[in-house]
Amino acid sequence: MTPYSLLDLSPVPEGATAADALRNSLDLARHAESLGYARVWLAEHHNMPGIASAATAVVIGHVAAGTSRIRVGAGGIMLPNHAPLVIAEQFGTLATLFPGRIDLGIGRAPGTDMATARALRRHMEAADHFPQDVVELIGYFAPEAEGRQVRAFPGTGTQVPVWILGSSLYGAQLAAWLGLPYAFASHFAPADLDAALALYRQSFEPSAGLQQPHVMLAINVFAGEDDAEGHFLRTSMQQAFANLRTGKPGKLPPPVADVAAVIDPGMLAQVDQALAIAATGGVASVRAGLGALIARHAPDEVILTGQIHNHDARKRSFAIAAEAMQGL
Fold it and tell me: Among 66, 124, 142, 308, which one has the highest count of C-beta atoms within 10 angstroms of its own C-beta?
């Protein structure tokens, strides 16, 4: 069976608060732990009223403290927003508190708009320092070495697993060059999926931490009691994505019976293309959808996500997805 994990954006539904979303994230992680999910990852986004995981390391600590076995990590930290030493200290602290349970996925995008990126003190330079920052960050997790002037305490010697996240050929090439595991953001940007996985696998250079390429595929799941309910639940994310694409990010809307009545046809086509890597419907349809994607792309792991307005329906969706994965 392909290992399966969960990506949680801590969605804030309309009618709810960030406090509700953070409580729901912990409840969902406990639920995922009981269902055999290998990991739960949280993501860094800023200036988005519908996402409560902006302080990602803090939320990871909250979730890890409330669970006992499941790995908890970042999917991901947008490294150019931060000094590598600060991230090493944060995740070194998490790994010290929760040994053997912390993952660190890192990305290159700002995770927000440009005005907010500037407010984060991100350097808007033409030069790209991301590869050097990744190498520097990994170095802080290495064992103690004589002569090293700058060290992360806690952090040194924790060997926190680092993943490269990406939605383009850039991340695939960097992950292959550094010999790191690679998670592709196919849940919202599938255009380069086939080319990126091929490039990563063909170009992979073994490293001390990883001898063979290791791919994680991100898949949207909207599972209900039957196909009609699954497609109904999906309309919340379709609306949220359309709002984001038109510069109006907000809280997660409730589902609607006819999504074509609330989203312009041209925009709806763009949204559906972006969310195409998905398994939607009842358990049989979700199992078939997941099975087809796994057969085509041969990932070493999958990470399932899906923003659903009602928390109980969201928990049920991930339970159905786990049942589907176990039945493959």
Answer: 308
- Is residue 228 domain-resident? no
Distance CA 244, CA 17 (A): 19
In a domain, 208, yes or no: yes
The CATH number of the domain holding residue 66 is: 3.20.20.30
d(CA 174, CA 167) in angstroms, rounded, equals: 12
- Supply the range of the domain harboring residue 161: 4-220+297-326
**130-184: pLDDT as tens digits:** 999 999 999 999 998 888 899 999 999 999 999 999 999 999 999 999 999 999 9
Does residue 166 have a cis bond before it (omega within 30 degrees)?
Answer: no
Rounded to two decimals, the pTM is 0.96
| Residue whose token pair is 């608060």 | 17
In whole angstroms, give the CA distance from residue 34 to residue 221.
Answer: 18
**Count: domains in the chain:** 1
Which two structure tokens, joined as six digits, stand for 324?
């589907």
Q: Say if 43 falls within a structural domain.
A: yes
Tracing tokens 């860094």 back to the chain, one arrives at 44
Asked, for residue 108, whether it belongs to a domain, the answer is: yes
